[in-house]
Amino acid sequence: MTSEEGYEGDARIYTRVSKFEPNQKSTEDQEDDCREMATRNRRRVVKVYREEPGTSAYQEWVKRPEFDQLLEDVRSGEMVIAYAVDRVTRRGMEQAGAVLRVLDEADAFMVTVSDGIDSRRDDAELNVGLRAILARGESKNTSTRSRRGIAKRRAEGQWLSPRAVYGLQVVDRRLARDPETFPTARWIADELLAGQSVYAVTRALNEKGVPSPSGGSTWNTGSVTRFATNPAWAGVAIIRKRLRGGKYFYRPIILGEESDNEEEHKPPTSVGKGVVTLDEHRRIVALIDARSQERGRQRADQRFAKSGRRVSNTLLNPFARCGRVREDGTECGGRLVGTGKDKEGGIATYVCLQNQSRARSGIATCPGLYVSRRHADQEVGERFIARLAACEPGDPLLDIVAERWTAHERPEEIAERTAAEKAIREVKAAIDRVDDAFADGVTDRSSYERQRTRLLDRLAKANDVLAKTPKPVADISPLLDPEISGPAWEAATVMERRALLSLAVESITLRPASRRGEPWDSSRVEVDWLA
């Protein structure tokens, strides 16, 4: 329509409700009031932007697609109408000023129904800024009260969500085992604890035709991983933290983390019965994490293969270095890679990668090295078995091998100690921050002494927890017995042999023969052990 038909321009309406604000107008009521204002100002409403119910304008990570679209759509001369400033922003003067600048650059303006704001006035920026500051403070207080109430109910052992993880149900704000899904959930847990992959478990569920958590017939690895790694599966209260990008991670709540409860660093708060025990949950998380890391390495190899380059399937590739002496008298030290296969008329060798790549450009800094893979692999395997068999108590290499073998064989116990050590580091960092705040005059002495005393008490309890968490030790005796390790080495795959070498080997230097056609000489192999 044109101004001749009774309108002086267009208007856009923005509405929003938050789940934390009591007695607020619905988006429908806000729209009605805004339309009345548009009519009084002889404006035609071209679009209404309505956020999803419960969308916050206070939390920085919350996305408001309708609000963003409004700022993108607004055109010259248009009026943006909101019921109040706090519908547009609750993040203080900074965002309020940014919104006004966007509207000013678009030659548009904003008015509000209940606040009487009109950004065309000279005092509008100050008025909007002050109201935005008040709205931010109100949101902060509401958020604080809400968190305290939630923390109190959690500390009392209440499960606050209306839904439970797979295998459980909510009964009187407590988790209980669901008669229908618990048997399947427990079977999943047993399979994961037995070392089965999430993919294998998911495939078995689909083959059996077991209904999925969503009610459909198809399971997927993502859903199984989510509920199997959720601490609530062990029947304990959880805390959800947001990562960059909007994703969440979950961890169990320790008493005192979210409240003023002085009984800190006790076991996680129980909110009912779980599918697994807390120890079983830690083992499952550690096993899934270890398998995920291995899958990540496999995917990297697949991407490497798709790039047109050969995926390494030779034993010494991660360790081998070129021992050829260059013209300037220095040792090359370049990486060696395996190439070729043992067959009639050919031989599998390790070659110097630096020589190969530089030769293409005509700048070969290494004369080149070719070593039989069969001889080098056999020599390294024999030395590895003999070196471990020769280890005496107190040998530094024995300590390194034991530590790495334990991390490989008992990841869940390593994870438990790692968590305890992390808690100690976090408390120490908090103590440093309190000390710095007092030194800078940010806090007074009474507050400083109160906080420091409490943190020192937490540190003492955290150290006590670590002291009571036994350091995991794995039995490495089979690795030290050549009658066991020898046949095991022969039966192992290339990847398994690599993993064993990584327990004790830093690098391996291969050197050229002194003359062409010379028989194999074991002195051409030099192993640099980790200790």
Structure description:
The structure is a single chain. The protein is an alpha/beta fold. It folds into four domains: 3-149, Resolvase, N-terminal catalytic domain (Rossmann fold); 168-301, Hect, E3 ligase catalytic domain fold (Alpha-Beta Complex); 320-396 and 479-529, no CATH class; 411-471. Helices cover 47% and strands 12% of the residues. The protein is built from 17 helices and 14 strands. The protein has helices spanning 27-40, 65-73, 85-88, 93-105, 124-155, 182-193, 198-208, 221-228, 278-306, 353-361, 373-389, 396-409, 411-439, 445-468, 477-480, 482-491, 494-501, and strands at 9-15, 43-50, 79-82, 109-112, 168-171, 174-177, 238-242, 248-252, 320-322, 336-339, 349-352, 370-372, 505-510, 525-529. A four-stranded parallel sheet has the order 2-1-3-4, with helices on both faces. Strands 9-13-14 form a three-stranded mixed sheet, with helices on one face. Strands 10-11-12 form a three-stranded antiparallel sheet. Helix 11 runs antiparallel to helix 16 (482-491). The chain is elongated, with a radius of gyration of 33 Å. The model is unreliable at 255-265 and 297-311 (pLDDT under 50).
